[in-house]
Design goal:
The complex is a heterodimer of chains A (421) and B (444). Chain A contains 13 helices and 16 strands. Chain A is α/β, with parallel strands linked by helices. Chain A has three domains: 63 residues, no CATH class; 188 residues, Thiamin diphosphate (ThDP)-binding fold, Pyr/PP domains (Rossmann fold); 127 residues, Rossmann fold (3-Layer(aba) Sandwich), CATH 3.40.50. In chain A, the strands form four sheets. Chain A has a seven-stranded mixed sheet with strand order 5-4-6-7-9-8-14, sandwiched between helices. A five-stranded mixed sheet of chain A has the order 11-13-12-15-16, sandwiched between helices. Chain A has a two-stranded antiparallel ribbon with strand order 1-2. In chain A, α2 packs parallel to α8 and α4 runs parallel beside α5. Chain B is α/β, with parallel strands linked by helices and 444 residues long. Chain B has 15 helices and nine strands. In chain B, the strands form three sheets. A five-stranded parallel sheet of chain B has the order 3-4-5-9-8, with helices on both faces. In chain B, strands 1-2 form a two-stranded antiparallel ribbon. In chain B, α10 links the parallel β8 and β9. Chain B is globular, with a radius of gyration of 26 Å. Chain B starts with a helix and ends in an 11-residue tail after the last helix. At the A-B interface, α3, α4, α5 and α6 of A face α7 and α8 of B.
């Protein structure tokens, strides 16, 4: 599995697995800085709805991610500049140029950069071409790269996933888009029996550098069939990696990392997060597929979460801070394998764990994370691990009912209070 | 988009209109012909406005009579063959095969036949755990491979080791795979007969039925993007044509104009299910047209017919960028596998008749003998030598040790992650602690 991406200096190992594409090795064209790897001091701009705090200089140690520039994204949008502080911001921008965009645009940017860099990268899925994708992630790409590289497929998920696997084994780097993650249940046969397996059963002769991505999770009254959380079903499949993005910053970084990885990667996006706005750096960056993100360091309790629940947790965190608690919030990001190093460091510090997820209670990511933490860090725990997850029910359509199948900030607050007694 | 392209093409043909775009390379941005719908009223003025209606998908003539298309055709699609049952050419319009190629084809067919017999016996003796023979389908296996080049990529089901033999995979390597020893390409991870070799452009067999069919389409898409002078070919049986993947793959290949050959070995049986219980269409060949795929039905026991058809299909696939479906009619003489006894569901004399009277190997032999390229002495020499080679290969493969413990955990990912390394260590520690509970011929 690819370890921390070292920046452009290292050639990403494209395995010449088939004899057909021996001349396709490409080096990235621009200098890039892997921020996840940097040990230098960087500016972190933190802001909340009411006042703009001054930037603080931070020393990063390995294993920690650069914090995303804005934390409470659901609660506010960054404003422009005001007076002297505006000048300060302007200087900041010259030193570390950034641009603001929405999450789906960040995904598109990552995708486009990779397509530009490597002509083997192609996209296939329903309505990804001229239509630009149901969530506009591939908008404009068909015009730029042609119908063959951004391929509209007929409606047969198992088969176009199979097609992607065949193309990957023959030298391309396809990205298969499921219009909704739930539809990829139809592709389960190809994902489990072929995607995860063929590298192994062929004795390493054929690699499958495919990325399977799509939006999942509970949306706004999309109905049970369109509110599936597939990460729990896929997590047992050997041979695949799974990551979940939650901010524009990590969406772009994870997209790029997934495309560059030699293993099949499933990238889970969330339907409700596509319109999140954030500032991301102008310069190229790639994140690690196996690292968790420290969202808010703290001392009292470790809250592990991913995807949309991150925002519910951060909302609850505000309430908790007002009540005097100091929660440490980690966005686990890597669903398979878990980043037990970051999680372990946190558990050793706080001795209490709360897992907040959107998966169902039975057999969810939280369930296997609970098992992994208990196995590895049992001695460091002062209290049993609490896991807040959705109920084992299909997601109802009625708005009020749907809201109560998803973990709400109030529940998180009371769970923390109970754990920290 | 589809309606406008059809209208555009029709317009083009009606008015001898040549499109005003330069053909762009596949890697540069390219759009389909036109995304602007033509105005229907101008179009109708060209046709008799009372005879057609223009739904999405193109114009259709309408008729006031309610006519259902019959579920069957009065005549079945005819079957192409070159040699008769006696090995005599029926006509002279086939692609001639040189003596060298013909003798090589014949030797490979005999090799396949003997290999199957001996490995089947080996399984019955308990030396390997499983085997599936290709008896009766040697012509499809070898002749199709002979008509392709080394660059064409093969996506097999599991009854096609012939192309591997044709491309130089040795009997010893076959034995290594069947015995899952450390010299197996697949590192002992797959069942016997699940061969795979990237050097020979033969993708590893997966037991799942018809999953390789969309893979072949994806590979064809890749070859087309790279503008290679090669196609992909995929094999599957009559049973495999019922899987959803088959239908979607044909559909995709047609829409994407992918250079892929779909070769269906219609051998009459899917384990115990005869074709009458598998589909009610006239075999598999008629399904091609339903998806817009050019198709042909061929006598699968006629090596020259297969050779000619596959060669022509390859030419069409690559130069015209289209998929081609070939239905090769044949008979599965052997059991489905060593886990099956087909006398339970079909009469033993039917099997014997197909084995003797319709043997594709014997039929081809008659043709090459008649050409003076083969004789009895060459035959017995070949068979004896093959038998020796095979028995020797089996003996060698049997005594080689199995792959090491690391190979349980390698290649799951490109680099083993820490949790797998931990699990590997645990297994090794367990073996060290209880060596008597584990077989001797694995190295820890």
């Amino acid at each position: 599995m690819a370890t921390l991406f070292q920046g452009v200096g290292a050639v990403t190992p494209f395995s010449a697995s088939s004899s057909l594409d021996s001349n396709k090795l490409l080096l990235p064209s621009r200098k890039s800085l892997s921020i996840s790897d940097s040990r230098g001091s960087i500016f972190v701009y933190r802001s909340d709805a009411l006042n703009l705090k001054a930037a603080t200089r931070l020393q990063l140690s390995p294993g920690h991610q650069k914090r995303s520039p804005s934390e409470d994204l659901l609660l506010h949008q960054s404003r422009g500049s005001f007076g002297a502080f505006g000048l300060y911001l302007h200087c900041l921008r010259i030193a570390y140029p950034w641009h603001e965009l929405l999450l789906f645009e960040a995904l598109r940017e990552g995708l486009e950069e990779e397509m530009e860099r490597d002509p083997r990268v192609c996209v296939m899925g329903e309505d990804v071409g001229h239509y630009g994708g149901s969530y506009k992630v591939t908008k404009g790409l068909a015009e730029k790269y042609g119908d063959l590289r951004v391929l509209d497929t007929p409606i047969a998920e198992n088969s176009f996933t199979g097609m992607g696997i065949g193309a990957a084994m023959t030298g391309l780097r396809p990205i298969v888009e499921g219009m909704n993650m739930g539809f990829l249940l139809l592709a389960f046969n190809q994902i489990s029996n072929n995607c995860g397996m063929l590298h192994y059963t062929s004795g390493g002769q054929f690699t499958i550098p495919i990325v399977i991505r799509g939006p999942g999770g509970v949306g706004r009254q999309l109905g049970a069939e369109h509110s599936q959380r597939l990460e729990s079903y896929f997590q047992s499949i050997p041979g695949i990696q799974m990551v979940a993005c939650s901010t524009p910053y990590n969406a772009k970084g994870l997209m790029k990392a997934a495309i560059r990885s030699e293993n099949p990667v499933i990238l889970f996006e969330h339907v409700l997060l596509y319109n999140l706005k954030e500032r991301i750096p102008d310069e190229e960056y790639v994140l690690s597929l196996e690292e968790a993100e420290m969202v808010r360091p703290g001392e009292h309790i470790t809250i592990l979460t991913y995807s949309r629940m991150r925002y519910h947790v951060m909302q609850a965190a505000k309430t908790l801070v007002n009540k005097g608690y100091d929660p440490e919030v980690i966005d686990i990001r890597s669903l398979k394998p878990f980043d037990l190093y970051t999680i372990g460091c946190s558990v050793k510090k706080t001795h209490r764990v709360l897992i907040v997820e959107e998966c169902m209670r039975t057999g969810g990511i939280g369930a296997s994370l609970t098992a992994a933490i208990t196995e590895n860090f049992h001695d460091y725990l002062d209290a049993p691990i609490v896991c807040l997850s959705s109920q084992d029910v299909p997601t109802p359509y009625a708005g009020t009912l749907e809201e109560w199948t998803v973990v709400q900030p109030a529940q998180i607050v009371s769970a923390v209070e109970q754990l920290c007694q | 988009m589809w309606i406008s392209k059809t209208i555009f093409n029709h317009f083009k043909s009606r008015l001898n209109f040549t499109p005003n775009y330069a053909p762009l390379s596949l890697l540069s941005p390219r759009r389909f012909a036109s995304t602007i719908a033509q105005n229907p009223s101008t179009f109708n003025s060209i046709h008799d406005a009372n005879q057609v209606i223009d739904f999405p998908g193109g114009t259709v003539k309408f008729i006031p009579e309610m006519r259902f298309i019959s579920e069957t055709s009065p005549k079945r699609i005819p079957c192409y063959r070159v040699l008769d049952d006696d090995g005599q050419p029926l006509a002279n319009n086939f692609v001639q095969v040189s003596e060298e190629v013909a003798v090589r084809m014949y030797s490979n067919m005999v090799t396949l036949q003997i290999m199957d017999t001996i490995f089947y016996e080996a399984q019955r003796q308990g030396r390997i755990s499983f085997y599936a023979t290709t008896i009766g389908e040697e012509a499809i296996n070898i002749a199709s491979a002979a008509a392709l080049t080394r660059e064409d990529v093969i996506f097999p089901q599991y009854r096609e080791p012939g192309p591997l033999l044709w491309r130089g995979f040795t009997l010893q390597e076959i034995a290594h795979q069947c015995f899952s020893n450390k010299y197996d390409n697949g590192k002992g991870r797959q069942m016997p007969i699940h061969y795979g070799s990237n050097k020979h452009n033969y993708f590893t067999v997966a037991s799942t039925v018809a999953t390789q069919v969309p893979h072949a389409v994806g590979a064809a898409y890749s070859l087309k993007m790279d503008k290679k002078d090669a196609c992909s070919i995929t094999y599957f049986g009559d049973g495999g044509s019922s899987e959803g993947d088959f239908h979607a793959a044909l559909n995709f290949a047609a829409v994407m104009e992918a250079p892929v050959i779909f070769l269906c070995r219609n051998n009459g049986w899917a384990i115990s299910t005869p074709t009458s219980d598998q589909f009610r269409s006239d075999g598999v060949v008629v399904k091609g047209q339903a998806y817009g795929v050019r198709s042909i039905r061929v006598d699968g026991n006629d090596a020259l017919a297969i050779y000619n058809a596959v060669q022509a299909a390859r030419e069409m696939a690559i130069s015209e960028e289209r998929p081609v479906l070939i239905e090769a009619l044949t008979y599965r003489v052997g059991h489905h596998s060593t886990s099956d006894d087909s006398t339970k569901y079909r009469p033993a004399n039917e099997i014997e008749w197909w084995r003797l009277a319709r043997d594709p190997v014997a039929r081809f032999r008659k043709w090459i003998e008649r050409n003076g390229w083969w004789n009895d002495m060459a035959e017995s020499e070949l068979r004896n030598s093959l038998r020796q080679q095979l028995l020797h290969s089996i003996q060698v493969a049997e005594n080689i040790e199995k792959p090491p413990i690391e190979d349980i955990f390698n290649d799951v990912y490109d680099v083993p992650p820490s949790n797998l390394r931990e699990q590997e260590q645990w297994v090794k520690d367990t073996i060290k602690k209880h060596p008597l509970d584990y077989p001797e011929n694995i190295s820890a």
